[in-house]
Amino acid sequence: MASHIVGYPRMGPKRELKFALESFWDGKSSADDLKKVAAGLRSSIWGQMAAAGIKYIPSNTFSYYDQVLDTTAMLGAVPTRYGWHGGEIGFDTYFSMARGSASVPPMEMTKWFDTNYHFIVPELGPEVNYSYASHKAVDEYKEAKALGVDTVPVLIGPVSYLLLSKPAEGIEKSFSLLSLLGKILPIYKEVISELKAAGASWIQFDEPTLVLDLESHKLQAFSGAYAELESTLSGLNVLIETYFADIPVEAYKTLTALKSVTSFGFDLVRGTKTIDLIKSDFPKGKYLFAGVVDRRNIWANDLTASLSVLTDLQAVVGEDKLVVSTSCSLLHTAVDLVNETKLDQEIKSWLAVAAQKVVEVNALAKALAGQKDEIHTHMCYSNFNDIIHSIINVDADVITIENSHSEGVKLLRTQLASAK
Questions:
Q1: CA 20 to 30 Å from 77, out of 59, 120, 299, 355?
Q2: Where are the strands (E) in 115-213, listed by range?
Q3: Treating both helix axes as pointing N-terminal to C-terminal, what angle do 272-280 and 303-317 enclose, rounded to 10 degrees?
Q4: Which residues fall within 8 angstroms of residue 375, CB to CB, at 6 or more apart?
Q5: How many CB atoms lie within 10 A of CB 27?
Q6: 88: Cβ–Cβ under 8 A, 6 or more apart, which residues?
Q7: Does residue 111 sit in helix, strand or coil?
């Protein structure tokens, strides 16, 4: 049984990226120093997932700032105030868009759906000269491959990218951002073609806006976009990931009717009604990436309950077409428990953050394949890294008190208070 991770935290088990960025921004280290730290983190993340037995390992989920900003860079959709005149976008332009400078303000930042993560909102219009200006997705796929890890490159899907954007300054608010599909899809085609040439056999498009209540013309944009990409995608296994909520019925019908798509990923933690849609009508011969491991709290998975859900779904889609996954990117949790030697062992046994959730995903995949021992031994985690300071500063996006036992919460709070 196969396993998959939607995405992984990029800050590092000891906040290595945070410190490297601050050093670079303060002029204390070079761009090469920053790139070296980033490469080390990527290598470690891919290696950890490979060692844990994950089959479908994502690439291009690492970011120096924000994955939506990375897509803006890929498309060359740089607002004119940043003085970019073409070519590969470097750190100066990239961080100016993210943070501003002495002479120009940054781009707007807003919440990524209902999480506490914030993304940089693209500013788009008909006059933007879109061009393939960041080869990050291809470069990182090649980087992982050189390390012996064949990954699934991840892109923000073209329709969600536009729906999450806003009209650029001077453009009427009524301007249809979806009218820009014809301008950005040629760049997506270039990226896809380069990934295929580099040896990619899978590609993942994150289209989280499919869980929103979308008007019919917005749903039609998904059909039109992926029909336009169909010939370029030929020969690839194509996964579209949705997350954060149930997918509405009409969106589900639109998504599962896409001919160019071979696999569909759903959040089955928050999207429990989606399970009924899958059971009633799932396209024959397609893959289901079942997001049963919760990515937005720090509690260990109820593996028995998850296995029950997976067993039911396996009967619907077939043993060879079911992939165990996280409900969305693990970006929304802390990194690891392994260094938390001062944390009470009983409390520690209740917890699971990104590194442990990777192990849970693979344990469920093995259990589903008949290795039931995995359910009982999954707490023997491998060498992964950090959590306590994230817990101390935790917020409702990371820890879900409603889902915990009240006595356990009291004990956890006592333990955290002593750790401060």
A1: 59
A2: 118-120, 123-124, 152-156, 166-167, 202-206
A3: 20
A4: 303, 304, 307, 363, 367
A5: 7
A6: 133, 134, 135
A7: strand
Distance CA 360, CA 155 (A): 25
Residues in CB range of 23: below 8 A, 6 or more apart? 29, 33, 34
**For the segment 297-352, what is each residue's pLDDT rounded down to a tens digit?**
888 889 999 999 999 999 999 999 999 999 999 998 888 877 777 888 888 888 88
Q: φ, ψ for residue 209 (rounded to 5)?
A: -70, -10
55: left (phi over 0), alpha (psi -120 to 50) or beta: alpha
The residue whose two tokens read 């100066």 is 92
Structure tokens at 260: 């160019």
Q: Cα separations (Å) of 415 from 57, 220, 287, 412?
A: 34, 52, 43, 5
Task: For residues 420 and 408, give the distance between their C-alpha atoms in angstroms, rounded to a whole number.
Answer: 19
Longest Cα separation, the chain: 61
Residue 324 β-bridge partners? 3, 290
The 8-class DSSP code of residue 82 comes to G
Task: Please tell me the distance from the alpha carbon of residue 50 to that of residue 56, in angstroms, as a whole number.
Answer: 9
Tokens of 191: 């990226």
Q: What's 398's DSSP letter?
A: T
Pairing of strands 109-111, 118-120: antiparallel
Q: The tokens 């920053």 sit on which residue? A: 34
CA distances from 230 to 60, 136, 194, 262, 282 (A): 22, 23, 15, 11, 20
Give per-residue pLDDT as tens, 214-224: 999 999 999 99
